[in-house]
């Protein structure tokens, strides 16, 4: 901020208020002063005009000709009375550290910690921690953050001292409160193509069923779509759902939804926030080629016991948190369950669909340098239809982390985790069960070194062991037509090392660069089929179709023996150039490798979708992504604009032959081909960040395509070997999100979504065979579903907004799809049994859906 240049004039007749106005009209700096300063008084002792002078130089000159003292800290110019000081011997310095927490005992990131007597300060890090070296003595320490009351303490420092601050939210600012303007866009950082949503924002976005949903909220961001209403997974910049790395407190999760996509697995009560990396992905992340969704859970309260929850139409939830040992240990535990199946039974409906999940996080601070934490998740779904079909599926995750601080510059995080996803299916009328799952065990060790304010290094290693069970089929009665069959289990080891450098080259130019080296080993115990000419898929020129190859032998690999191995260098780079404190341009490049894949030829992954590792017939996917953007803040951060252009190229993208059957297929290589994919487009995000009305408009214009050419000149490939639209292509994607605070009791929220229809394959004619109409289909994804759009509204009513202790509550009333749009989930083509005419039928999931939720805490 001190690099900004201004032109000002002062003399003996200029008041301090008039001087403030000159500075504030030319910069985004704010003034802070004590009650002893009279802004209507004239403090300057002589006349001077300073032309195009940097703020830092101006402050130096002004301190020579005024009877007050000016100093710059961050975005603020502090003003205080000059005090005559006598020369004193230098005092011994000690370290003043601590944490800044909000009224929910959550870390406050970017809070300003200012020491009045020294006229210096720092801001808190992502853990809400601050650290500053000060001479031994007595000080007044003030903590401030936009939207919160100032907190001030007298602190005596004679040795290394720890002082924590708890700041309370406040809608009214006093005159002397320092206003810290947090920019909507961080102009100077190299990080781009990342969207962050706080839980305050997430809880304002209306969704079906009336329950705040972190995963559904990211669909309002540019470049993010899904396959439609009540569908699981999400697509980022034209990528498939299995190309997203989803992390919960650092551990991977392999499924993201309950009830076939109606709810996400993330409970809004315990989620602290989420970061979605679409590009410019740091080197510490790897294993997927589309995006990284990094979800963090709250830390339990270290001082007080608290309870909050909500009761909705479909589900209810409850959260409890508090200290295990005051100021040292804490816990937080949340649970959620649906009960729609109970209403079905009351209506003599034998169908059932329900889910439940549990989240927990435990923290213990041994001392200032060592913290141990554990995060866990368990979720399960139960679904059955008239005793003809029943399935259960869900995830389990646990991660244990030890954070150690070696020094003020070097810290580390060592973590070990377990994660699995399981799917069980039973069909009583066919007398069989099918069970499948994926398990993974991992270890991560990361270090952070702050060499200086301008140079930081992040480096580490990690390893991940996989156990894939594609399924075991079990007969459930003696007369079952199915025999016991265990599909071949698969095992793999993925390891990597990375280093990431952040370098501030100049005040305007920042550069981040890094490298990840990844290795992947497909391991036995497994028997691999072999095929003539090594081709598991063969081309039949007579019928112009691809068919399953016939194995001509097999190779058996013993336990732990290497079947296939791959390794890749994955360079990353990002650059930002700030023209000033409000405007910058950024560019980034990513190479990433993905070694595991979901086997599913549907646009939205289903619960029974199977993960499989790369191997002899399935190569790792490799991504190269380029992005550049223009970023701008307006009116001191009240408004912000983010625009980006991107281009993605993916090698070895799995494609499926026509009629491929991937369910319970022990030789999946017989129905897949290796192709490639690309996507490119423009993203725009405009935000209004302050005031009673806030929100954003996001728009994406993009194209997503795949290409699978023939392996020989005689083979046609898929879609004649040409580029064709992938199932994730959405040419236009528009979201408008708004929030209006009418008064402390009432607030209103809205969300409008409009997207191009999903690419599909329609029949373009039919022929008759034996009196039966047989459809003839067009080239793959040559058609589209109709335009998709809906408007959602919500109102929040807080009966007693000023109540800060005891029982507190609020109501959320919502309407999803206000104008009852019948968006098409699919189109089917049939023949009318009465007339014999061809018919097209649209399947819609939702019409208008009302919702109401009662939320409470105490």
Q: Could you give a quick summary of the protein structure above?
A:
Helix content is 4%, strand content 56%. It contains five helices and 58 strands.
Description:
The protein is mostly beta strands and 858 residues long. Helices cover 4% and strands 56% of the residues. The strands form 14 sheets. It has a 22-stranded antiparallel beta barrel. It has a five-stranded mixed sheet with strand order 14-21-22-17-18. Strand 48 and strand 49 form a beta hairpin. The longest helix has 11 residues. It is elongated, with a radius of gyration of 30 Å. The relative contact order is 0.09. About 2% of the residues have low confidence. Keywords: Cell outer membrane, Membrane, Receptor, Signal, Transmembrane, Transmembrane beta strand, Transport. Belongs to the TonB-dependent receptor family. This is TonB-dependent receptor. It is a multi-pass membrane protein. It is found in: Cell outer membrane.
* End-to-end Cα distance: 42 Å
Please, how many helices?
Answer: 5
Judging from the principal axes of the Cα atoms, what is the shape? Answer: elongated
Low-confidence runs of at least 5 consecutive residues: 171-183
Strand content: over 45%
Mean pLDDT: 86
Q: Helix content range of the residues, please?
A: under 10%
Largest sheet: 22 strands, antiparallel, barrel
Sum up the structure in keywords:
transmembrane beta strand, cell outer membrane, 58 strands, receptor, mainly beta, Plug_dom_sf, TonB-dependent receptor, 4% helix, 858 residues, single chain, 22-stranded antiparallel beta barrel
């Amino acid at each position: 901020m001190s690099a900004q240049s201004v032109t000002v004039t002062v003399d003996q007749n200029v008041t301090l208020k008039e001087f403030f106005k000159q500075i504030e009209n030319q910069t985004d700096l704010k003034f802070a002063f004590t009650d002893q300063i009279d802004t209507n008084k004239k403090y300057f002792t002589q006349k001077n005009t300073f032309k195009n002078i940097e703020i830092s130089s101006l402050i130096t000159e002004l301190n020579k000709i005024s009877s007050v003292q000016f100093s710059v800290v961050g975005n603020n110019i502090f003003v205080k009375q000059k005090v005559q000081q006598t020369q004193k011997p230098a005092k011994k310095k000690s370290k003043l550290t601590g944490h800044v927490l909000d009224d929910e005992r959550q870390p406050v990131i970017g809070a300003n910690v200012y020491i009045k007597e020294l006229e210096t300060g720092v801001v808190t890090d992502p853990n809400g921690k601050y650290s500053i070296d000060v001479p031994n003595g007595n000080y007044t320490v003030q903590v401030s953050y936009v939207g919160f009351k100032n907190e001030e303490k007298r602190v005596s420092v004679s040795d290394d001292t720890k002082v924590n601050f708890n700041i309370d939210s406040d809608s009214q600012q006093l005159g002397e409160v320092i206003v810290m303007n947090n920019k909507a866009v961080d102009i100077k950082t190299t990080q781009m193509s990342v969207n962050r949503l706080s839980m305050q924002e997430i809880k304002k976005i209306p969704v079906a069923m009336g329950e705040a949903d972190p995963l559904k909220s990211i669909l309002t961001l540019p470049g993010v779509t899904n396959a439609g209403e009540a569908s699981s997974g999400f697509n980022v910049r034209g990528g498939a759902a299995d190309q997203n790395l989803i992390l919960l407190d650092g551990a991977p999760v392999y499924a993201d939804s309950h009830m076939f996509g109606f709810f996400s697995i993330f409970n809004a009560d315990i989620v602290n926030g989420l970061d979605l990396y679409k590009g410019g992905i740091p080197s510490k992340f790897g294993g997927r080629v589309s995006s990284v969704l990094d979800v963090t859970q709250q830390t339990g309260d270290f001082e007080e016991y608290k309870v909050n929850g909500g009761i909705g139409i479909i589900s209810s939830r409850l959260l409890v948190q508090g200290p295990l040992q005051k100021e040292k240990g804490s816990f937080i535990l949340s649970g959620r369950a649906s009960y729609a199946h109970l209403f079905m039974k009351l209506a003599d409906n034998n169908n059932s669909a329900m889910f439940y999940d549990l989240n927990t996080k435990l923290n213990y601070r041994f001392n200032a340098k060592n913290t141990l934490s554990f995060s866990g998740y368990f979720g399960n779904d139960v679904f059955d239809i008239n005793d003809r079909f029943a399935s259960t599926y869900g995830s389990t995750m646990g991660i244990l982390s030890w954070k150690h601080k070696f020094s003020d510059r070097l810290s580390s995080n060592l973590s070990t985790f377990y994660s699995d996803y399981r799917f069980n299916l039973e069909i009583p009328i066919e007398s069989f069960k099918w069970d499948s799952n994926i398990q993974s065990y991992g270890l991560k060790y990361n270090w952070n070194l702050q060499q200086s304010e301008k140079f930081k290094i992040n480096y580490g290693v990690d390893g991940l062991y996989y156990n894939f069970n594609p399924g075991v089929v079990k007969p459930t009665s003696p007369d079952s037509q199915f025999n016991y069959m265990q599909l071949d289990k698969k095992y793999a080891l993925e390891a990597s090392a990375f280093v990431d450098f952040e370098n501030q080259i100049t005040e305007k130019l920042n550069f981040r660069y890094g490298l990840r080296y990844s290795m992947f080993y497909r391991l036995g115990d497994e028997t691999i089929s072999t095929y003539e000419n090594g081709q598991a898929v063969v081309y039949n020129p007579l019928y112009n179709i691809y068919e399953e190859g016939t194995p001509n032998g097999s190779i058996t690999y013993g336990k732990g023996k290497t079947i296939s191995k791959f390794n890749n260098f994955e360079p990353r780079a990002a650059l930002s150039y700030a023209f000033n404190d409000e405007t910058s341009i950024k560019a980034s490049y990513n190479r990433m490798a993905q070694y595991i894949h979901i086997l599913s030829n549907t646009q939205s992954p289903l619960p029974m979708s199977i993960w499989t590792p790369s191997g002899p017939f399935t190569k790792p996917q490799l991504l190269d992504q380029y992005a550049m953007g223009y970023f701008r803040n307006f009116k001191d951060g009240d408004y912000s604009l983010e625009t980006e252009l991107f281009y993605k190229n993916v090698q070895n993208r799995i494609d499926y032959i026509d009629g491929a059957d991937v369910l319970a297929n022990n030789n999946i290589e017989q129905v897949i081909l290796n192709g490639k994919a690309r996507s490119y487009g423009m993203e725009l995000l405009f935000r209004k960040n302050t005031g009673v009305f806030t929100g954003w408009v996001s728009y994406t214009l993009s194209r997503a395509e795949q290409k699978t050419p023939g392996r020989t000149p005689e083979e046609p490939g898929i879609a004649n070997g040409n580029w064709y639209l992938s199932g994730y292509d959405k040419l236009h994607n528009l979201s408008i999100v708004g929030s209006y605070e009418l008064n402390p009791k009432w607030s209103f929220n809205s969300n409008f979504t409009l997207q191009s229809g999903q690419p599909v394959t329609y029949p373009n004619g039919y022929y008759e065979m034996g009196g039966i109409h047989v459809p003839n289909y067009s080239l793959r994804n040559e058609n589209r579903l109709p335009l998709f759009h809906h408007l959602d509204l919500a109102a929040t009513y807080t009966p007693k907004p000023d109540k800060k202790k005891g029982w507190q509550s609020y109501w959320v009333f919502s309407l999803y799809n206000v104008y009852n749009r019948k968006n098409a989930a699919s189109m089917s083509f049939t023949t009318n049994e009465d007339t014999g005419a061809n018919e097209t039928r649209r399947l819609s999931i939702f019409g208008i859906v009302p919702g109401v939720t009662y939320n409470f805490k105490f």
